[in-house]
Amino acid sequence: MHEMAKGSNVGLAALSDDAGAVVVSLCWSSASGDGDADVSVLLLDDNGKVRDDADFFFYNNPAAQDGSVQLLGKQPTDNGSEDRISLDLTAVPQDVQRIVVAASQYGGSTFGDLDDLRVTVTDRTGEALLGFSISDASVESAFIFGELYRRAEEWKFRAIGQGYETGLAGLATDFGIAVDDESADAAEEVAAAPPESAVQAPSAAAGPVAIPSQADATSRTPDAPVARPRGPRTAKKKVTLPKAPKQSLAENDSWKHARLFPAPSLKSDKERELRATSVLLSVMTEVPEFGRRLTAGFGAPAGRMQSFVEVTLPHGDAPKRPDGVIRVERAGKLWTALIETKTNGNPLRSDQVQNYMDIAARRGYEAVITLSNDVALEGSPLVDIKTDGRRKHKVTLWHLSWAEVAHQAQMLIRHEGVGNAAHAWLLHELLHYLQHENSGCHGFQNMGPAWVPVRNGIDTETLCQGDQRAVEVVESWEQLIRQVCLRLGGELGQKALPVQRAKRGTDPHSRRVALADRLCEDGRLTAELRIDGTPGVLAIVADLRTGKLRTSIDIEPPEGSYPLTSAKRLLRLLNEAPADLHVETLVEGGNGPRGTLERLRPEPADLLPKDGSRIAGFRLSLFKGMGATRGSAESGFIRSVDDAVDRFHANVVAHLPTLERRPAN
């Protein structure tokens, strides 16, 4: 990989034979676990300005209709998060000369609050081409990481690493986006439209469009300043499904709606795999936004897509039949991926995947995509394969979980919108199929064979540090938490990511071994989730010794409020919360008073420290019994975690966004 210095540039053609499509990744970490930024991309003409507002891409406008730009979203890393952007350079309009890749902070935070700022560029096979680390960020609230630009029909990358103290509004002004006058005094604050209006792009008649920060989407005030692109928005209005279902015409609840993709008749795993593959690939082909979203991260170009199932391909003495094939054609060139599908919790087989990798290499295909209920973890491959380094043609192995498929469908039909009502309906039918109990596509649903022995070992105090079974349970727990984030993010339309606190440079396996040793010592599995629009980090603790799940969040008191005023305001916000909610006052150097909401409501003063200590915040917690079995049945551990997170978010966290959000330290 070519390491770049600030201000340097390099031609992509010199780094890869196939740089027609690249993925740009922006990474950062935060010691506190709550640092984040919103990624944006701007297409500029030869004057260094956007041609119109459609050239600005951000979380609520994540993809270009021609497929040239697509924001792929965030992925958790061991020390922070990674935001990925797919750029199909062959599809970029000729009058676009530069592609600026930037990010912005909000709420008074700056890029100096974040660590390990870095941008990397990979080709369509996932091979890293270049990297640029930034170590001098300080007071900037908007930052340009780098840009791609044309030189004599060649694309080059320039490492920039410069920012704006004036935030997104300052950056927008430089590139031809007009900013309202009232935002001049507080340019770093860029307001977002309310969540219910963010599910579809506005029509041309709606006038100029605000550039929002996703984290502010739930906290806009009427007088908040907004940055507006010049001219009316020309993007076609997109369609989302209404939140409230239409009134049923059925005579009684026993009548079942006709479905496009029925699942009840499936009787074997082979049937489930074939049906699931065919259903998914057909919807990907017919709904361009969906198909492009799932394949862009795998290096596929933006083009005409076709899909096939049960294709027979020669391989030695016995032909092989992958579950599916995806082909994308652009400018006379074909991109091909073989699909290997597993449903109902069945594991991927290394020998099968190895055969498909060999077939793809011989036939000049670009990728093999595995699809199963498992969630891939960094540093823990789902299958072991060998790559023949003598082959010139490189094939990339990718993994997709059914939970991620459902997440992307949910984001499109509930929050971001698709091209027309028929596409929205197709995605709705796909989502209904995936969620059907007989489809086998429910995502991660089994804590694995080590779960029961580890629980028994903790209960009898015979589990010793260094036990590999504890590492397996930690990996299963991490998969479960990532799936919880996918599901919750799809339902809310917000970014939801696990927070992983680890020393810089710690490799994933070493981190999991340390967590496994801690599990053996205290019998607890812990996790933290960062959800946009919430005033704190949601913590989950599964205590295997007591069989209890604890979900909690720490929130800060409003600045400048008297202690009793803070306590009363908090209790008013929690008016609809469960009576068994535990409220604890946090004080410097220790813990303060605590009690259930039922007891505290008539006596808010009981939350005040008796010795007059300064209140640092409040901890809100709910407790729930933990499922005993390893699976996702009603009595299972996975179901109990899902239920605990859902109950806590709906009944507690959802009432907190009006609390003032303060900058990260």
Please explain how this structure is put together.
- By secondary structure, the chain is α+β, with helices and mostly antiparallel strands.
- A seven-stranded antiparallel β-sheet has the order 18-19-20-21-24-22-23. A six-stranded mixed β-sheet has the order 1-10-9-3-7-6, with no helix packed on it. It has a six-stranded antiparallel β-sheet with strand order 2-12-11-8-4-5.
- A hairpin with a 6-residue loop joins β19 and β20.
- α2 packs antiparallel against α6 and α5 packs antiparallel against α6.
Topology:
Blueprint: E1 2-3, E2 9-11, E3 21-29, E4 38-44, E5 56-57, E6 69-76, E7 80-88, E8 98-104, E9 115-123, E10 128-134, E11 142-151, E12 154-164, H1 167-174, H2 269-286, H3 288-296, E13 304-309, E14 324-330, E15 333-341, H4 350-363, E16 367-372, E17 396-401, H5 402-416, H6 421-435, H7 451-459, H8 468-492, E18 496-499, H9 508-522, E19 524-531, E20 538-543, E21 548-555, H10 563-573, E22 582-587, E23 590-596, H11 597-600, E24 615-625, H12 637-651
Parallel strand pairs: 1-10, 15-16, 16-17
Antiparallel strand pairs: 2-12, 3-7, 3-9, 4-5, 4-8, 6-7, 8-11, 9-10, 11-12, 13-14, 14-15, 18-19, 19-20, 20-21, 21-24, 22-23, 22-24
The biggest beta sheet reads: 7 strands, antiparallel
Termini separation (Å)? Answer: 33 Å
Query: What is the rounded Rg?
Result: 25 Å
What is the 3D form? Answer: globular
Poorly predicted segments: 181-235, 658-665
User: In what range is the share of β-strand residues?
Assistant: 25-35%
Question: Strand order within the widest sheet?
Answer: 18-19-20-21-24-22-23
Helix/strand class: alpha+beta
Using DSSP, what is the number of strands?
24
As a percent range, the share of helical residues equals: 10-25%
Overall pLDDT level: 84
Task: Give the helix tally.
Answer: 12
